[in-house]
Write a structure and sequence with these properties.
Elements: E1 13-17, H1 21-32, E2 36-40, H2 50-54, E3 58-60, H3 66-70, E4 74-77, H4 86-93, E5 98-100, H5 101-106, E6 112-117, H6 122-135, E7 139-144, E8 161-166, H7 169-172, E9 182-185, H8 199-207, E10 218-222, H9 226-232, E11 238-243, E12 251-255, E13 258-263, E14 266-272, H10 281-297, H11 301-309, E15 319-324, E16 327-331, H12 338-345, E17 352-357, H13 369-374, E18 378-382, H14 386-393, E19 398-401, H15 405-415, E20 421-424, H16 437-457
Parallel strand pairs: 1-2, 1-4, 2-3, 4-5, 6-8, 6-9, 7-8, 9-10, 10-11, 11-12, 16-20, 17-18, 17-20, 18-19
Antiparallel strand pairs: 12-13, 13-14, 15-16
Amino acid sequence: MTSESQFSVADSRVVVIGAARSGVAAAELLVKRGARVVLSEALCHVDGLSQLQAAGVVIEVGGHRPETLASAELVVLSPGVSPSLPVIDQVRRRGTPVISEVELAARWLRGRIVAVTGTKGKSTTTLLTGRMLDADGRTVVVGGNVGTALSSQVEESTPEVIHVVEVSSFQLELTETFRPWIAVFLNLSPDHLDRHETFEDYAAAKARIFANQTSSDAMVINADDPLVLELARHGRARMVRFTVASSVEDGVMVSGDSVTYRSSRGAKTLMPLSAVRLPGRHLLSDVLAASAAGCVAGVSSDAMCRAVKSFEGLEHTLESIGEINGVRFVNDSKATNVMAARASIESFTRDLVVILGGRFKGGELADLIPPLSSRDGSVVAIGEARDRIREVLGRTIRVREAQTMRDAVHSAFALASSRGTVLLAPACASLDMFEDYAERGRVFKEEVALLAQEVANR
C-alpha cells in the first residue's frame, strides 16, 4: 500500500466516472481529502446525489464531457465503466493517470487487506472469511464488490482493521499498488467476455491480485483449478492451497468427515463436515477457501467452526424458497456465468428444470449439456440469450422459451415432475430484463409466491 504521505489529491482536479455505489463513495472520499471533484455519469438522471453536491462535488450527467476530462489530473473509474471507452483512451494518451476505485481507496488504507477474486463464489467466501475473523475477535470490515465500497472504509481504517474485500476483474484491471496481505483466488473460467476482449485479458485482470505481493504475503489458491495454479506460479507470496478433490501438503482439504489443515507442523482438524450447512460441492470449496485464509490469519479452529455453523448462505445463492405440490423452487440468480450455472445444476440429482438466460457474457453453453442430460433436465429460456440457448441446447435438451419471469415460472412448474426442482441459474447477466441479479432473484421469488397462491386457490 502507498502511504498517505506519498499520495495526495489536495487541490487536484479529479474526475470520477460512474455514479453507482463505488463512484459515489470515491467522490465522497476524494472531496474529504481536498480534491476538486467532478462526478461524471452517462445516464441523464441520477437520484440521491444532493449530499455530494452540498459537499462541493460537481455532478455532470448525460455523458462524459471531453472538456471535463481534458482538465483532469486524475481519473477514477467505477467498476461498471469500461476503460476501453474512447474518452478514456484519450485521457490515457494525454498521460493522465486512470485508476480504479479500489486502487484509490487502497492507497489510503491503514489496515491489512484480504482480497477475494474468482469467477464464482466470491461473495460467499468474502462474507464467510469476514465472519471467521469476527468470531475470532478481530476488527474486520467487509466490502468491495459486496457490501460497502472500499472507499467508504478508508475513514475507519486503522492498523488493527482487516479489510476483507471482494474484487472483480473490473476492479483489478486498473490497479497499480493494490497489495493484499492475503489474496484468495477461487477459480477461473470464461466470463465478462462482453467487456474483456479475450479470455486471456480477463485472466490477466484477475491475476493482478498477486502483482504487488511479496514473500511476506500469502496466496490462497484452488488446487483443483489448473488455470488458477498456473497464474499463481508467477506470484511471489507464500502459496496455501485448498482442495475438495485431493490432498495438499500446505493447505486445507477434506479428510474423512472433517475439514483439515495440513502444514509442515502436521495436520489439524478445523471442523466436522457436518458443520457446513451450505448446499453444493462448489459452496464447500468456498468454505475451504475461507478456512485457508483464516488459517493464514491465525484464526482459531473454534472460531472458524462457529462461523461456519451459523452461516446458511446468501440470498440468491442456491436459496431454497419453498415447494408447490412437491416441486421445490431454488433461487440461484447469482449464477451469472456458465461455470456458476453448471456448478448449481450439479448440486441436484434428478428431475431438474432450469431457468436460463439473460444477457450472455461468454463461455460455452454446451458445457451445460452433460449435467442437464444426466439429471433428466429441461430448460426454460429467457432474455436476450433465448435463441442462443435453443440453438446450443435444443437438439439434446428440452427447451421452452418465455418472455417474462412470470411465464418462465409457470412453464417450469408445468415441466417439473412431482418431487422435481425448478432452479433459477441463468448463466447470464440480468441487465436485459432487470436492474441486477438481485432484482431478478426477487422477481423470481415473487412469481413463485404468486404461483403458490394460484395453486392453493384452485
